[in-house]
Amino acid sequence: MQRTILLRDPTRRPEPRALVQLLKPVTWFPPMWAFACGVVSSGVSVQDHLGVVLLGVLLAGPLVCGASQIVNDWFDRHVDAINEPHRPIPSGRVPGAWGLYYAILWSGLSLWVGYLLGPWVFGATLVGMALAWAYSAPPFRLKLNGWWGNAAVGFSYEGLAWVTGAAVMIGGDMPDARILALAVLYSLGAHGIMTLNDFKAIDGDLQMGVRSIPAQLGAPRAARVACWTMALPQVVVIALLIHWERPVHALLVGALLLLQFAAMRRLLRDPRRFAPWYNATGVTLYVLGMLASAFAVRATLGGAM
Predict the structure, then answer these.
(1) Domain segments of the chain as ranges
(2) Residue 199 near residue 279, CB atoms below 8 Å
(3) What is the reported pTM?
(4) In whole angstroms, what is the distance from residue 215 CA to residue 23 CA?
């Protein structure tokens, strides 16, 4: 009863600390890393564009990613009231409809900053915000199906952030086709990473009717799908790097992929047990390959190493 009163009391105001918690700073790293890869791949000196780079980092992490976290918590508030009542919205620390207002405000702020950074950045921001709302909000609720939900998150966190990083360095225009190719490929691979994140919630997903890939396929098959999904795009990246005459970078990405294969063998022995371990090891190797690929494109575009 007390929690219901807190949620509905129109005189209450949200706690500042709870508003920060809704942004979930721990989730900002993936899009900020992809943004950095986009900056590197552009071939443009960071020193000459430090202001827009900092604004772009703010856009990729605290703004767009933060907005997606607020949206998700608002539309999950009823489930969270049962499973995680300590969260800011169900606990009443962000009462009433303040969570919805906050989500709308932060989404609008993200779009405004994206607009300031140029047409391609604005376009990427618009798509990212659309995916964030479609992921969590009805009628789409992409998160209820792992195939669609993981794709939305992968393209938002990796591909769109990468394109944004490259676009801000070239005045907001369309990045080179090689940059777009890498952004798409690493987004596809991120689908597998998102599948691994779902292993920790298999039992809850089965009870709640959430069709995550591990819930649909079972842990062993889902782990194999995740491994193939992460590996195949990297094989294509290696082939592209060889085609672009960057053999050293191709060798480096290949070596990182071989180390991932070794980690995958352990993951497949017991996916539910080793998925968190793989997220700390194999995924690190994956994102290092992203950076190596970004430097390869930078070199082909004539940027300084």
Answers:
(1) 14-174, 176-305
(2) no
(3) 0.90
(4) 27
